[in-house]
Design a protein that fits this description.
Helices cover about 20% and strands about 20% of the residues. It has eight helices and 17 strands. The radius of gyration is 22 Å and the shape is globular. It has about 500 residues and is of the alpha+beta class. The strands form four sheets. It has a seven-stranded mixed β-barrel. The chain has a six-stranded antiparallel beta sheet with strand order 1-12-13-11-14-15. A two-stranded antiparallel ribbon has the order 6-7. Among the domains are: about 160 residues, no CATH class; about 120 residues, no CATH class.
Length: about 500
Amino acid sequence: MSLRISILTLPLLLTIACRSAEPPEDSGGDGDGDGDNSASGGASSGNGGSPVSGGGPATGGTATGDGGMGGEGNSGGADPSSGGSTATGGGDPVLDNGPMQEKLAAVEVTCSVLDMETDCNETTPAPCIGEDGKISCVLKIFDGEGASVYDGRVGIERRGRSSLNFPKPNYAIEFRKSDGSDNPKSCLGMGKEADWILNGDWADRSLMRNSLAYDLFDDMGAETHYGPESRFATLSLNGNPQGIYRLSERIKIDDDRVNIPPDTGAGTSMVLKLDNESEDVTADLGFLTDAWQIVSPNPSNITHRAVALTWLNNLADALDDGTMFEHLNIENVVDWVLLQELAKNIDAYQLSIFFSWTNGETANLIPWDLDLAFGQPTSESNDGNDSPEGWLTTRSTFIENILQDETFQNRLVERWAELRANRFSDASLNRRIDQYLVVLSGAAIDENFSVWPIDEVDFTLIYDDYSFYPIDSHAAEVDKLRAWILARLAWMDANIETL
């Protein structure tokens, strides 16, 4: 692998992720009542569902259990769409604290049309919010009971890479005081911050793929694992319904997000993102691009860029000589790879790569942007990304070198068995989907696909080589997603030693 690294003077976007106060392996989540982002916890009798009352361990219980939020199931597999458990049976304790969100929130954005643009994406109604800098608007957020969560100024702009062309826009928002300075607020059970994302998930007709991926990863580990939290909400813009969005954390250093020590100004902590849009440092680690951006701290300085350059240079050399786990946390990377392969994420090993790093510690990977995963899209090149069988075929040099490490290979196999006994059991994944459906249902779903018709979600509008399978309803999409995940789990069980 040829490695070329240089330093630029432009700002760098860097992303690091850790959590300091994760629940232990045998407990549930916090049970709260989240181009481009957590409802964890299983049903409990106090949070809108019944606890698992029977069955053995998650990998093979035989007694009848309550099966999750949708209804009673047994170890042989009640209908997953009704919330029953499946062939893995039994009850794992990971999801016993109930859904993190039981009712949809509501977000209202009001902007002056004088600040909006008329030259919009041809499939996006005008006037629209532009992408070339935040405009000042008024934002109101209400929880599921109608109580006000935020009512004030906000800076907002369209965000994304390929998603900039989506008919349903994604937005970056910044809570602001009247003088334009940051106005950090806790939001719907998520930690206090000023920077957030409104993600419309246009390309994901289930509306839950990103949440599923991030929530799974966040629950897989403790301080080394961070998955951005989010909450589902309806969105209106100047009184016009925009459908269902996720109000999501933006990846950055913070004690409620990437929980590592704050940077001292000398490049002691950083979050790095592989990004061909705005590069601060160039480093050829074998990805599609060699441009890296410092996401956090923001703004970055020349010292941050020099430290990032040194770290990337050391990692590049380590990939060549097989000492990469002197620089990367092996447990974090194992789980990140298993998540990407479970989802069969088409961008997994080439784009949306985030590293978190703090001085004296090994770095961690953060998952991001998994809407093109879990069975979609279909590729003209017939690479099988939509099939539940087969490993991801597009691999960067970075991941190829990691997968050749014997210690890493052995740990992959061991860890898969551990995860299948709880967080990745058929029953756990079915219950997690059931919990998203607590809020992703009813009139709000109907309205979303009235504004953005499900039969018009066509990825060939964005990229000719990829298309989506036809589907006629949200319920049908969720059923297809469930079936694909269960088939994927079974295939990986039989083939994990070949990864």
